[in-house]
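To: structure subgroup
Subject: Chain for Friday's discussion

All,

I'm putting the inputs and outputs inline so they're searchable in the archive.
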Amino acid sequence: MTNSINGIEKSNCIFIIGSNTTANHPLVSRRVMRAKEKGAKLIVADPRGIQLSQFADVAVRPKLGSDVALLNGMMHIIIENGWHDAAYIEERTEGYEEFAAAIRESTPEKTAEATGVDPEDLYRMAEAYGTAKAASLLYAMGITQHVTGVDNVKSCCNIAMLCGNVGIPGGGVNPLRGQNNVQGACDMGGLPNVFTGYQPVTDEKARAKFSKAWGCSLNAKPGLTITDMIPAILEGKLKGLYVIGENPKLSDPDWNHLNHALQELEFLVVQELFLSETAQVADVVFSASALAEKEGTFTNTERRCMKFEQAVKPLGDTLPDWDILARLGTAMGYPMHYNNAREIFDELSALTPSYAGMTYERLGYDGLQWPCPTPKHPGTVYMHKDTFSRGLGKFHPITYQPPAEKPDKEYPFSLTTGRMFAHFHTGTMTRVSPHLDIEQQDGYVEINPQDAGKMEVKNGDLLTICSRRGELDVPARLTNTIDPGTLFLPIHFGENPANILTSSDAFDPLAKIPEFKVSAVNVRKAQAEIVEKTVS
């Protein structure tokens, strides 16, 4: 997030796109509702009728994968009506003229054709966002998990800069991270092309600094993304895989393709709290400690690094993740002698400019938000206050590109996937919690009553959903929150794994994020159920 969670309450307008915020980020959604109670306008754009749609001043259901078209259409109206911040654009940005020329093509009529959003609603959205003194844009994986994920994010940045909403309280471009330490994992160098704090492995100075600190020579070649790893296994280039706190058997696209790749591996190690679907097929499982059993830091969605303390002793022989890795490194011939997580954090601060001013003492109870470059720096509540980190903010002319798979005769439905309120990711933790699991114990697929009626399907009837990758049977849940021709499948249930249907070939070419949010499928009443009813 360029801004902070608390800052949402200072917004005059909140634009939520591609985020089911109440289900996936309930504390953030509470801030949204407080802002609404204080008079802020609320805009919601989501293919499903999510809970916040009920409270929105404008709520629309754009077609799956049409986010760029929607945002371009809004920006066209904003520019045509002079709601853009000309002074901000002149002083703080570059590339506006080329961008504005590209936006002229995105008329309300063309936008309606691409998105299914009524031009009147589009105008109301543009007016609410474009005329607000401070507008906050919130998005989640409904924006990123597309073949155009990078274009979608750039378009979010475009509209925020267009209206002068970056570098002000209550504004910003604010991605809501999918898990508690996604931001922290990226900050720590959990990406294949950077060291900590996004210092490129290709940068000679950064490489020399880390080589000296770690006492070894470091490779300048970036590693593989997850999307690259699976083909590399099948090509025989990748022989072993070490999976930490991840469950690719349910979270990676194309279950059949992935399963075949895992069988080709010579060695699979999984480091986990529970015996997940992936851990069950591992050669070695390292048992990791849970949150309450260890101490260290997390960095959350608003860039806030927070310290946590051990509350209970670890069960059995479980160890903190860092301890497992340090012992493994030492056993493999590279000594990693840390006494505790604090020593690792001190090393991080010494090597990472954005964390340089942080210490355990300074983190205290509330933590600090990076950038925090010096010991007396208070942390950064919102970024880009007077200037962008690159100097001038850059506008990007983005052209709408449709999803990789569109409905056709053979696969006439569009499937989207995501989370529901009671469970988290692949259910590794929530489905072993009785209080959460009882809320929803089985998978389901949401289908519009019109579509269900044509197939003579009732609530709970078993449906067979088929894509170009595979098929699964799952109970139907009839709801008007999903439009005709569209299906929604939660990702949490190993009994009905959504990734049987999603594609590993469709992904963003730059970020390599799979297109989990759009797949072409067909759907029919399950044969097993028809036979059972015939027999009875």
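Points worth raising on Friday:
Confidence is low (pLDDT under 50) at residues 530-536.
Residues 180 and 300 are 6 Å apart (CA to CA).

D.
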